[in-house]
Amino acid sequence: MMKFLVQLPHFLFFTGKGGVGKTSLACATAVQLADSGKRVLLVSTDPASNVGQVFGMTIGNKITPFDSVPRLSGLEIDPQAAAQLYRDKIVGPVRGVLPESVVKGIEEQLSGACTTEIAAFYEFTALLTDEVIQRDFDHVIFDTAPTGHTLLLLDATGAYHRETARQMGPSGISFTTPMMQLQDSKKTKILIVTLAENTPVLEAAGLQSDLRRADIEPWAWIINNSLAIANPTSPLMRQRASNELAQIDAVTKQHAKRWAVVPLQAQEPIGVERLKKLARHFAS
Ligand SMILES: Nc1ncnc2c1ncn2[C@@H]1O[C@H](COP(=O)(O)OP(=O)(O)OP(=O)(O)O)[C@@H](O)[C@H]1O
Ligand SMILES: [Mg+2]
Description:
Elements: E1 11-15, H1 22-35, E2 40-44, H2 51-55, E3 64-65, E4 72-76, H3 79-91, H4 100-109, H5 113-129, H6 131-136, E5 139-143, H7 147-168, H8 178-183, E6 188-195, H9 198-213, E7 220-226, H10 235-255, E8 259-263, H11 272-279
Parallel strand pairs: 1-5, 1-6, 2-4, 2-5, 6-7, 7-8
Antiparallel strand pairs: 3-4
Helix pairs in contact: 1-11, 3-5, 9-10
Residues 22-23, 46, 50, 143 line the site of magnesium ion.
């Protein structure tokens, strides 16, 4: 087991299947880093973000400083709000210039699910290349949606990279795509969150293979909600704890280059104090 929050690069991603603790660990990390003096932006790419609930505040689709934690700000990428901004950007300049019926037609064409995904993707990737954000924050922590949605976002990022490379390649001009930021371990670390159970470990291994296929090497795994490390006394809990050992073994011996095991807490890690307590299990 090791401590994680040392020599971190600019971007940090928490990924994994649904309900394994991505949001809790991302929030705990954000609080810990801000507490240690870093300027941190905590971004949720989950359309169903609950980061606001964890801190008991409203965040939404703009960078919002947290009252409860100095140096920490949050942003929830809201695909609907992003799509509206995207529509306004395109329709704004032609409103009053083109006939109303044409403007309506454009608006209708931009009202589909596809536009919403594109707009959210646009916001996500802009964060990876935005120089103001790089300057204003020491770390940007991404709390992602469950695996499937995140892989879609990565797919789109890969396609965007290939198209940029195709267009820019012959020009000799150097360029940085969001994908290149994700692939560069000096800029980005990816943390895979899982549970010490068979299916979650298999799914996390599948996610790792998908990331590797995109030339992204996950940096470490976090096994969350562990009873084995919580040293329970009741016979039932001890039995469950011993069931975890084979899975922890698989993660540490077969899958992960680095790992941490985080114990199941008696209470949900909600609010700054409990998040700080959670961070102590994997932070330095
Ligand atoms: N170590 C822990 N001990 C106890 N409860 C935990 C722990 N980690 C997370 N939880 C709780 O488990 C639930 C799921 O955690 P969380 O929301 O962080 O998962 P998630 O991976 O972000 O889920 P989703 O995929 O739905 O976004 C929450 O109620 C959270 O408070
Ligand atoms: Mg979550």
